[in-house]
Amino acid sequence: MFFSPGEYVGLAGARLDGGEMLACGLATHFVQSNVGCVCASLITPSKYSVPQSLLSLEESLKKVDTSNAFAVCGIIDQFAQQPSLKESSSLNRLEIINKCFSKRTVEEIISALEVEASNSADEWVATTIQSLKKASPTSLKISLRSIREGRTQTVGECLQREYRMVCHVMRGDFSRDFFEGCRAILLDKDRNPKWMPPRLEQVHDEAVEQYFSRIDDPQWEDLNLPARRSHGRNIESKL
User: Fold this and answer.
1) Whole-prediction pTM
2) One digit per residue, pLDDT tens: the chain, 239 residues?
3) How many C-beta atoms surround the C-beta of residue 132 within 10 A?
4) N or C: which terminus of the chain carries fewer CB neighbours within 10 A?
5) 177: in domain
6) Domain housing 168
7) What DSSP line would sit under 92-123, residue for residue?
8) Total domains present in the chain
């Protein structure tokens, strides 16, 4: 079975907190900040002070005279904590996430979630289904393909792929859903976007393929990255 929180985060638009970032491998360390100080600073800015743990960490890192990753990690380790996942965390539902979001298509993912909803009273499942059904069908399908392609690509290939996707979305070559979403959320604020096409089954593979093609327009140059020196380490996808 695939490890599929990437599909869940990307398709459902879920947000991860610090503990969740650490748990799924997107972060290496967690240093607690003092949220209370930040909130208080909005009322009395002159009384705001950076938490001592962060100040001490910053001072320690300033003294580092090496780029050795192990040396840097050793310093951060002295201040890092191992936070517990909140009871409501989606990562406590990894079995469901992996079972449903490892399906081949968006349609199959939603169908699998609906089966889970019929056998579970967990509100998280219903909320996730609702999030997927409210989203742009086109965006869901290009996002799913992008996430899965990225697992086997280099960092440079990922950046180029995502750059092309964003350019096509911003140009509105194949769909105006981006502009419709902005209208519904930011302008008219009716939160009732009219996606085109409106249904997942109407977004065919040929339409999805177009978002990954190079743009044939001199005003939209392709992303050309400088050659990167290899550090002898393989960088693997975390999600």
Assistant:
1) 0.82
2) 456 889 999 999 999 999 999 988 889 999 887 644 444 444 455 544 556 777 788 888 888 888 888 888 988 888 888 899 999 999 999 999 999 999 999 999 999 999 999 998 899 999 999 999 999 999 999 999 999 999 999 999 999 999 999 999 999 989 999 999 999 999 999 999 999 999 999 999 999 999 999 998 999 999 988 877 655 455 666 66
3) 19
4) N
5) yes
6) 136-221
7) GGHHHHHHHHTSSSHHHHHHHHHHHHHH---H
8) 2
